[in-house]
Amino acid sequence: MLRARAPDLSDGGIDPYSTGENGIHEDPAVHNDLTRLGWDTAFEEAFTPHAAEGLLPGRIVLEHTHIYRVAMAGGEVLGRVSGRLRHDAASRADFPTVGDWVAMAPAPHTGDARILAVLPRRSRFSRRAAGDPTEEQVVAANIDTVFLVGGLDGDFNPRRIERYLLVARDSGAAPVIVLNKADLVEAPEAMAASVRALAGTVPVHVVSCRDAASLAVLREYLSPGRTGALLGSSGVGKSTIVNRLLGHDLLRTQDVRESDSRGRHTSTARQLVPLPGGGVLIDTPGMRELQLWETGEALAGAFEDIEGIADACRFRDCRHQQEPGCAVRAAVAAGALAAGRLESYLKLQAEQAHQARQVDQRAQLDEKRRTKAATRALQKRLNEKDRH
Ligand code: GDP
Ligand code: ZN
Fold first, then answer.
1. Which terminus has fewer CB within 10 Å in the chain: N or C?
2. Residues 136 and 273 in one domain
3. Residue 64's domain is classified under what CATH number?
4. Given phi > 0 = left and psi -120 to 50 = alpha, else beta, which region is 320?
5. Last residue of one domain, picked from the residues 100, 118, 136
6. Per-residue pLDDT for the chain (388 aa), expressed as one digit of tens each?
7. What number of helices (H) and strands (E) belong to the chain?
């Protein structure tokens, strides 16, 4: 039973587990069935070279600042990124995150196990790193289904769901739209219709946490070995849905609080939680605060209607603002295209352009720094030569 190991982090300590001498925490009561956690033949294949090195597979279930909790067949261990992985990492995105399958080696003596490699991700959710908006930070990986949760109550906002759809399309996870709080409105299905209009082939489910039976449909996406996650604004009912799926209020009490070096308290919990029915749910603060990160291809895919109309614009680089002969504005004027839809499209484009500029500036700065360093090194060598 996976559930036997609900990590007790309620004491607020960073390391509630003591690790054994070789860094692998042995607990005979725990035996993880990796297939229930999502391990399959494709991952096994990707793991072949690591298996040849004698490494073992594990899945990241929690990320602390520099230490990870990893579910392995023999139980959970605490692991640190190896020097090799650190050295090979081209960017922050190459470091492990919750949901990643990793290659583990026990530490030779005392200490924590080591994470030597991250398997290629099937899907990933990223955001701009705190403190550096141009750096990608992966907040969760290998999610099969992402539930895009919206509330049908006062905050009902199809445009926001549209934005989350973009994020989902970019991630590689299959989106499912969940319209919650059906009990609070008169005609939930009529409201759902407006969402279905923009959802295309993405399933839309109307649910209420007050009606347990309505949530049963979500379990169908979370069969053994499947990984799900919830995305949506604060207050739409994500925590309540997670707790209903778990059958008890585990999740909210698991947040790990730890002090950083400045003594501030930051919640750094990362979580992958096994469900009674067999699947797993990922719920991380990062997922909850997700911002758009490079919606490039997704932007085009999600606005095919507008791009189609834009083919008829007089100018090929028409921005559909004040340009003469703009077919898109004409379509809005004729009532063939919703003004709100064009508005979301333009807003997202502006956001993307802004971000692209930031990434660009960063690249230029890096280049400058590299050139300066190289010049200094050369100067030093020349000076040394002079002295000899
Ligand atoms: P989160 O911020 O998305 O995690 O939202 P919560 O799960 O904390 O829910 C916010 C509030 O909405 C809480 O007071 C819940 O009890 C309430 N809530 C959640 N789902 C429903 C629902 O289906 N119907 C009603 N009436 N209230 C709900
Ligand atoms: Zn145009």
1. C
2. yes
3. 2.40.50.140
4. left
5. 118
6. 333 333 333 333 333 333 443 444 444 444 568 999 999 999 999 999 999 999 999 999 998 878 899 999 988 888 999 998 999 888 888 999 999 999 999 766 667 899 999 999 999 988 766 666 667 788 899 999 999 999 999 878 888 888 888 888 888 999 999 999 999 999 999 999 999 988 989 999 999 999 999 999 999 999 999 999 998 877 888 889 988 998 866 544 333 333 333 333 333 343 798 898 889 999 877 776 664 444 444 555 667 788 889 999 998 888 898 899 999 999 999 999 999 989 888 887 777 676 666 655 665 666 666 666 666 666 666 676 666 6
7. 11, 15
Final residue before a domain boundary, out of 283, 311, 339: 283
266 Cα–ligand 1 center, Å: 24
Task: Compute the distance from residue 181 Cα to the ligand 1 centre, in Å.
Answer: 7
- The pair of structure tokens assigned to 162 is 């549209």
On whether both 155 and 260 belong to a single domain, the answer is: yes
Amino acid (one-letter) located at 274: P
Q: Ligand 1: list residues with CB < 6 Å.
A: 180-181, 183-184, 208-210, 232, 234-240
Q: Distance (Å, rounded) from C-alpha 167 to C-alpha 162?
A: 9
314 CA → ligand 2 middle, Å: 7
Q: Kindly identify the ligand whose nearest atom is closest to the C-alpha of 315.
A: 2
Domain tally for the chain? 3
Domain that holds residue 167: 124-283
CA-CA distances (angstroms) from residue 109 to 10, 22, 285? 29, 6, 34
Domain co-membership, 140 together with 107? no
